[in-house]
Amino acid sequence: MLKIENLHAEVDGKPILKGLSLTVDAGEIHAIMGPNGAGKSTLGYVLGGRPGYEVTDGKVTFDGQDLLALEPHERAAAGLFLGFQYPVEIPGVSNVQFLRESLNAQRSARGEKPLTGAEFLKLARGEADALALPQDMLKRPVNVGFSGGEKKRNEMVQMGIIDPKFAILDETDSGLDIDALRVVGEGINRIMRKADKAVLLITHYQRLLDYVRPDVVHVLADGRITRSGGPELALQLEREGYAEAAA
Asked: What is the domain-level CATH number for residue 169?
């Protein structure tokens, strides 16, 4: 589904990704772990098409398309979802209206009919209930006044509504307490653990992987994948740290 070949990228002229290669097939969940500054978030931003992240070499294909040739909204319409480490606040924009417009814009780009207001509200309320997000938060401005955990649950509600093919989740566990971590982990499994979908989980810690068991764990250090293994690799990293694995 996603194939990255020899990817090099820089920010403000500073090289961050230095020949990263990775393949994620449909039906798989891959975890990316690594020390601060290794390039984990940069990888997510490059795949999502964030401005300021310049690809200097390499190739990325998504479902057979040249991902790097697509604009960010085209990547989203193709089925890519990027969950942010720090979801932004959007004052003055209703959460429910933002989600409805986002979904219908993608449906339109795919030649699908937009959902009616009633159809959308039924979908949004179902996702909010599944992720323990109070219904009144759907009416509030996007993420404004939300706690860290509420922002992450709201982002999972977005993912459930959009229903992407491929999700890149950048430190979704950041700022979550034990109960919220379980709810979010169960949400990822419910929405994305399917034969025609795939996930790239970016995380510092093993704790989210107790709930979302990955098929493959990768160590990213100094801009490239230095080691890959099964779920047991995450446990080893938790015990021993990154120094040896990153060498």
From this structure: 3.40.50.300
